[in-house]
Amino acid sequence: QVQLVESGGGTVQAGGSLRLSCAASGRTFSRYAMGWFRQAPGEEREFVAAITWSPGITYYSDSVKGRFTISRDNAKNTLYLQMNSLKPEDAAVYYCASTSMAYITAAQAMAPRQYYSWGQGTQVTVSS
């Protein structure tokens, strides 16, 4: 089992940037595909981005492609989400999650059921 703790959320003006971090412990972090999801009030949990084990193939939702970048530092057991050009509709609680697979397809990356461990979430608020 891997334990995940997100950080880096906060309040930012539209057009600004934030970098989220997800610290992993309890299992060999580097061998598994990881992802970021978000959930706004009254909405379902939504896929944001995912990254496989080395060489780190990435997937993004259409709504964040070109603005967000997912990355991982396997030496630090940390997953990142760099969010630029933030919009009010990006406001949500952001969760990181781990699969039990090294490589996943785009379809697998988008499905919450493929992830077996989740962090507690970090709030991102974007003011217009």
How is the biggest beta sheet arranged? 7 strands, mixed
Strand composition percent: over 45%
Helix fraction by DSSP (H/I, runs of at least 4): under 10%
Figure out the total of helices.
1
What's the gyration radius in Å? 13 Å
Topology:
Elements lengths: L2 E5 L2 E4 L4 E8 L8 E6 L6 E6 L6 E3 L7 E6 L4 E6 L8 E7 L7 H4 L7 E2 L3 E6 L1
Parallel strand pairs: 2-11
Antiparallel strand pairs: 1-3, 3-8, 4-5, 4-9, 5-6, 7-8, 9-10, 9-11
What labels describe this entry?
single chain; 128 residues; mainly beta; seven-stranded mixed beta sheet; four-stranded antiparallel beta sheet; 11 strands; globular
Tell me about this structure.
By secondary structure, the chain is mainly beta. It is 3% helix and 46% strand. The strands form two sheets. Strands 2, 4, 5, 6, 9, 10 and 11 form a seven-stranded mixed beta sheet that branches. A four-stranded antiparallel beta sheet has the order 1-3-8-7, with no helix packed on it. A hairpin with a 6-residue loop joins β5 and β6. The N and C termini lie far apart (39 Å).
Brief account:
The protein has 128 residues and is mostly beta strands. It has one helix and eleven strands; from the N terminus they run E-E-E-E-E-E-E-E-E-H-E-E.
